[in-house]
Design goal:
- There is one protein chain.
- A hairpin with a 3-residue loop joins β18 and β19.
- It is globular and about 55 Å long.
- About 20% of the residues lie in helices and about 25% in strands.
- Strands 1, 12, 13, 14, 15, 16, 17, 18, 19 and 20 form a ten-stranded mixed beta sheet that branches. Strands 2, 3, 4, 5, 6, 7, 8, 9, 10 and 11 form a ten-stranded mixed beta sheet that branches.
- With about 400 residues, the chain is α+β, with helices and mostly antiparallel strands.
Length: about 400
């Protein structure tokens, strides 16, 4: 199936509270000091003078938190921040949002999240622009995807306006942890909804807890775009059943990947590539991200269409960018052998953004024999493995996220 899409970069920016969120928007939080110039320029000025960066008593600037690691060297790991936000659903309605500093959550021993896995989550990011305004990339899309997850596992849907308002509130309270413009980092926003009411029989809970935690992050894989990752084709485990919950972001999907992911890393492969569970003949997705194949001769951007694949908001955005760059976007089944036709392969998602994949290897499953059966290689092997299309797509989406487009 071929899809034609067009993107107008300036239309991607919409102020929360100042304009309705479009279907493809970056939402701005105007939380910087009204008289502030670029934080990066301020830092350079203060460093030149040999003084510490001052902070307003009433306003806090992005990137002003003190961390144990330079902003430019952040990995993707948990770090404490000021607060998280919590909303409880009880007696058929959502309560008021509360900011909480204690990072621990008290849960009933009979909570359905603990016994039956009734939980879903999301992932999105906030970025600091050069004017020190903080923008969140497409929060309305994350709200819709969480609502889809809720419908599948019978949880109450948090309305989009409440979702976006909660994001605004928790980002505001942690504004100093938003990595500064030019650092390459972002504030990772993790919404989580789980059944907190007690049930012992298999049935939905009568109470639910929604929380959002935020963490400053850098690259998910060490080296980021500069270091293509090697993938292991996983054919001895399945990520999700054909009519299961692969297309929604429920917690159990990721628990199922812990063992194969760990085994892959022990074999020297940072990322796993899953095949379809029914036939083991078509490509589905990477462990934590969508699959994209690029055929430069045919100008194709190809990504799987499957009821077992989680729709990626980053992939959805990249498909529009790719179309605008003259590529034909195809969402369809991808036979495993078609990997030979791709000049470039990408892992795409909120956490990984656009990560180049240098190779995908299938190995023997006989005993401890790790002999390669087939190795597919991608990218410009003479130029660090980074293909031109990969670079262009990465630069375009990052320019949008950082306010440079």
């Amino acid at each position: 199936m071929k899809m034609k899409m067009k993107m107008n970069a300036p239309a991607l920016l919409a102020l929360v509270g100042g304009a309705a969120l479009s279907s493809f928007s970056v939402s701005a939080f105007q939380l910087q000091h009204p008289a502030a110039t670029s934080l990066l320029r301020q830092r350079q000025l203060h460093q030149a003078r040999g003084t510490a960066l001052g902070m307003s008593s009433t306003k806090v600037l992005p990137g002003s938190a003190e961390l144990d690691t330079p902003w430019e060297e952040l990995g993707f790991e948990f770090r404490p921040t000021n607060s998280h936000i919590s909303i409880t659903f009880k007696d058929g309605e959502w309560g008021e949002p509360e900011l909480k500093k204690d990072p621990y959550v008290s849960v009933h021993i009979g909570a359905t999240a603990l016994h039956y896995g009734q939980a879903c989550f999301e992932g999105l990011k906030a970025f600091c622009h050069e004017d020190d305004k903080v923008y969140v990339f497409r929060p309305d899309e994350n709200a819709k995807r969480m609502q889809s997850s809720c419908r599948r596992i019978m949880m109450p849907e948090l309305p989009t306006d409440k979702f976006v308002a909660a994001v605004r509130k928790v980002v505001s309270d942690n504004i100093e942890y938003v990595p500064p413009y030019g650092s390459g980092g972002a504030l990772y926003i993790r919404p989580l909804l789980f059944g907190s009411g007690p049930r012992i029989g298999l049935q939905p809970a009568d109470e639910y807890t929604f929380i959002i935690l935020v963490i400053p992050v850098g690259d998910y894989y060490k080296g980021g775009l500069a270091s293509p990752v090697d993938a292991l084709i996983i054919d001895d485990f399945d990520r999700a059943a054909p009519q299961g919950v692969g297309a929604v972001k429920v917690a159990g999907n990721y628990a199922a990947d812990l063992l194969p992911n760990t085994l892959s890393k022990k074999k020297g492969y940072p990322i796993g590539l899953y095949l379809d569970a029914k036939t083991q003949t078509t490509v589905e997705e990477f462990s934590t991200s969508n699959f994209v194949g690029i055929n430069n001769d045919k100008k194709l951007y190809v990504t799987p269409r499957s009821p077992s694949v989680l729709p990626s908001i980053t992939n959805k955005s990249l498909m529009k960018i790719a179309e605008d760059e003259g590529l034909t976007v195809e969402q369809r089944d991808i036979p495993l052998d078609e990997l030979e036709t791709f000049d470039e392969v990408l892992a795409v998602g909120t956490a990984v953004v656009v990560t180049p994949v240098g190779s995908a290897t299938r190995i023997s499953q006989d005993g401890d024999n790790n002999e390669s059966i087939k190795k597919y290689e991608f990218g410009d092997q003479d130029d660090g493995g980074i293909g031109a299309t990969t670079m262009k797509l990465y630069e375009k989406v990052r320019a949008i996220q950082s306010g440079e487009a």
